[in-house]
């Protein structure tokens, strides 16, 4: 019988010093979170000594899992040489070269410390480039932690409004209305309504931003014809198209845009490009990225930051990304396929209503047959008990040695076929227990 006594005790202490004991809301867990002690390869060990295969990988950031020798080596070496400084280092030049070489929409790059900051800067760049102020995002889209872009991330049905013109719903109490007036919410995968809205707002719209791979982790997939329409309309209407590849970058050597064959004007990146260290990056075409040029006087967008391009993140990112060769992506995809096939077999054998989705190193177990093509369908499935079922399963999977979140299985390079096969059987046992609960 595993114990969680030390986690429980730490949580009691945390409640004295942090609101309700937490400093990130996305990790809230009942009755208390598990506290991590250390990680090793694809496994994470909690403070009570229980080891689980880590299928969250810090919200997809740790594509090389934990404690990779090359990662430890470069962090130690760089920390010993230079932690941060006002002078640029060669590492930022070396790291910038990789997305420039690999990602179709990236001619130039700027760095920052989080994906949220990358999105903030993308918004500024699009506004400066177009001279317009409004930003359009998908209903239910997540692009990080700032008040403009987080609106309408999780609106409830009474807040939705007309599907042709979804309401802009503040994510937090106190968000200024004036800010929300600068946002346009689009219905994912509804080509005609989206096209009409873009045309109606074109004179005020600086950018459309979306994650081209999935919304709400892996739950909603933008269709390729929808993305192609966005590319065509934004080009025609003088609107900047931003692909948020903070997660999606891990789906291929050329990013998600390389897989799709659709090239945005700006690309926001983060997570894997830091090799495990905090990072964000904005890439884009020479034309749009020229808003940062200082060759002819003041830049149109000024951007700096104390820890921007800090050499530890830059060096660790360079080492981590360099290890992600075409072969490494192929191996991640092969392991992902093995997992998806195995999980599909389990659902079939046990006759569990659900399906397996995803590609490359991202896999989702979705415990419903209902189609989910946009945020509203997801919210409807959720109110029909989807989240409750998924959470109940997640607890059972944790007891079987799997750390997962929202049915997502995020792969990492240290995972072996044995780990995948262990996972498939652990899911089989946990689903059987869910059926008999
Ligand atoms: C698609 C997307 N964009 C932006 C962000 C924000 O990145 P960060 O958490 O590094 O600020 C996230 C984080 O999960 C994300 O998933």
Task: Explain this structure.
- The structure is a single chain.
- The chain is α/β, with parallel strands linked by helices and about 425 residues long.
- It folds into two domains: about 5-65 and about 325-435, Aspartate Aminotransferase, domain 1 (Alpha-Beta Complex); about 70-325, 3-Layer(aba) Sandwich (Aspartate Aminotransferase, domain 2).
- It has helices at about 5-15, 55-60, 70-80, 90-100, 115-130, 155-160, 175-180, 190-200, 225-235, 255-260, 285-290, 310-325, 325-350, 375-385, 385-400, 415-435, and strands at about 35-40, 45, 50-55, 110, 135-140, 185, 205-210, 240-245, 265-270, 280-285, 355-360, 360-365, 400-405, 410.
- The strands form three sheets. A seven-stranded mixed beta sheet has the order 4-10-9-8-7-5-6, with helices on both faces.
- The radius of gyration is 22 Å and the shape is globular.
- The model has no long low-confidence stretch (mean pLDDT about 95).
- Pyridoxal-5'-phosphate binds near residues 119, 211, 244, 247 and 280.
Structural class: alpha/beta
Summarize model confidence as the mean pLDDT.
97
Could you name the CATH homologous superfamily of the largest domain?
Type I PLP-dependent aspartate aminotransferase-like (Major domain)
What is the β-strand count? 14
Report the major sheet. Answer: 7 strands, mixed
The total tally of domains equals 2
Could you name the CATH topology of the largest domain? Aspartate Aminotransferase, domain 2
Radius of gyration: 22 Å
> What is the end-to-end distance?
19 Å
> Ligands in the structure?
pyridoxal-5'-phosphate
Strand composition percent: 5-15%
Number of helices: 16
What overall geometry do the principal axes of the alpha carbons give?
A: globular
